[in-house]
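>> Question from a student workshop board

For tomorrow's exercise we were told to take the sequence and the ligand below, predict the bound structure, and bring the output to class. My setup keeps failing. Could a helper post the expected result so I can at least see what it should look like? The ligand is flavin-adenine dinucleotide.
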Amino acid sequence: MDFGWTPAQRAVHDRMRALGAEADAAAPEERMRVLARGGALGLPIARDLGGEGLDLVTTALAYEGLGATLRDGGVLLAAGAHLFGVALLLARVGTLAQQRAWLPRLARGDAMATVAATEAGSGSDIASVEAAAERTAAGYRLTGEKRFVTWADGADVYFVVARDGGEGGAAAPARGLTALLVPRASAPAGSVRAGAPLATAGLRGARLAPVSFSGCELGEGALLGRPGAGLAVFQIAMTYERALILAFRLGAMERALGEAVRFARERAIGGHAIARHQAIAHRIAHMKLRLETSRLLVYRAAWELDQGRRGQAEAALAKWHAADAALQSALEDLSIRGGAGYLEESGLPSAVDDALGGGIHSGTADVLATIVARWLGL
Ligand SMILES: Cc1cc2nc3c(=O)[nH]c(=O)nc-3n(C[C@H](O)[C@H](O)[C@H](O)COP(=O)(O)OP(=O)(O)OC[C@H]3O[C@@H](n4cnc5c(N)ncnc54)[C@H](O)[C@@H]3O)c2cc1C
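>> Workshop helper replied:
Here is what the output should look like for this input. Compare the format with yours to find the bug.
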């Protein structure tokens, strides 16, 4: 077992750290373009398909670097949905034609992708989706309403899970699901519509919005994986996403830890620094513990996937723990500042709001606990 980083990995981390700082200084609407120009959207995509061909452990390290300097968790979430939720999925299950058509553009950020899976009646339970993918002579006709879609209005292609009318029915709903890649530009006019971004508590940069598909005609090339294999395809996408989507949080937690240490040393009450109170020092020590345990789980999950293993449970553990750790640490961080931490200008209330979202997207803690329990044979 080797816990060290190679000079090449450190160089990627440092490059992404600098890129994160550049994006942080840019206007919110420019940040994704800065990330794309700096190569952040193609890191693990094969070189011959326009990426850098990095392994997933190094990709996670790169996103840790981005998160250390870019405070806009929403835009990093959207970059993650694009790269981990769709581009990696395409690299794994897409046909050569689909990969050639999309991956170079996705890697450069010339086209943006996102996951459009959640519906009003199916968030945690993908098997309950009602969006319908009717078979036609040419391929499929898609109709349905998706919601809470990250980067909905900026996406050029949506990864959609829909009911295909195949065998399954009420007794085995998961059997009738098909995964589709829905390009916005070639869809008939008006058949794909993204709504206005929702007023979410945090992660505003992710621009969550509904997307509706109304009689959207798709060719055979839209099919991802086999017909009826939508559930399995969705699980592959979610495994990549869960393993990697919170890697940026490691950098954010590291930054918050450094700032908390500095504050506790400098803030003097009654003639001595608050760091001398064990209650304060222990809270910060717990922040360190949460950061390091999150690191171990995120890098472990990325490593499992690099080995070509399924990594479903490891990815669930990584996302579950990192989300929980980020939220607990954001709360502790705010509490050690007293009243100053409660001011919006401190950035700490919005860090709590952002961290709350991390516990919901890509599977809630309950859903992830269920995956881990099943893996344990429960
Ligand atoms: C910031 C953010 C970004 C998102 N991005 C996307 C995106 O890009 N694409 C997309 O498709 N969706 C996205 N979502 C939606 C997200 O995936 C869903 O909100 C999430 O899966 C939960 O579904 P739900 O909201 O329908 O809640 P529900 O499924 O209704 O869950 C409500 C509560 O019940 C619990 N619960 C439900 N089922 C079970 C069960 N079987 N066992 C135990 N507890 C259960 C849940 O844990 C939760 O506490 C995003 C959400 C957020 C907050």
